[in-house]
């Protein structure tokens, strides 16, 4: 079973593939999600990313394995 996670460093680099459908996201920072109130959503405070192709939601994982 594939892990439904995207590495935050890859997101910072703008190189993200959806683990659900396998498509590369052209502008991943346009599809960030947070679970809570923030003034502005950024790569640093995002919790997940939504794939514009399959509408799946993938969680963002930090290098140390936390989200």
Explain what this protein looks like in three dimensions.
The protein has 67 residues and is mostly beta strands. It has one domain. The chain is 9% helix and 25% strand. The chain contains one helix and six strands, in the order βαβββββ. The protein has one helix at 8-13, and strands at residues 5-7, 16-17, 24-25, 32-33, 48-50, 57-61. The strands form two sheets. It has a four-stranded mixed beta sheet. A hairpin with a 6-residue loop joins strand 5 and strand 6 (57-61). The radius of gyration is 11 Å and the shape is globular. The two termini are 19 Å apart.
Number of domains: 1
Strand-and-helix sequence, N→C? Answer: EHEEEEE
Rg over CA atoms, rounded to whole Å, is 11 Å
Coarse structural class: mainly beta
Average pLDDT taken over every residue? 91
Shape field: globular
Give me the side-by-side strand order of the main sheet: 1-6-5-4
Number of helices: 1
Number of strand segments: 6
Low-confidence stretches: none
Strand proportion: 25-35%
Which secondary structure elements does this structure contain, and how are they paired or packed?
Elements: E1 5-7, H1 8-13, E2 16-17, E3 24-25, E4 32-33, E5 48-50, E6 57-61
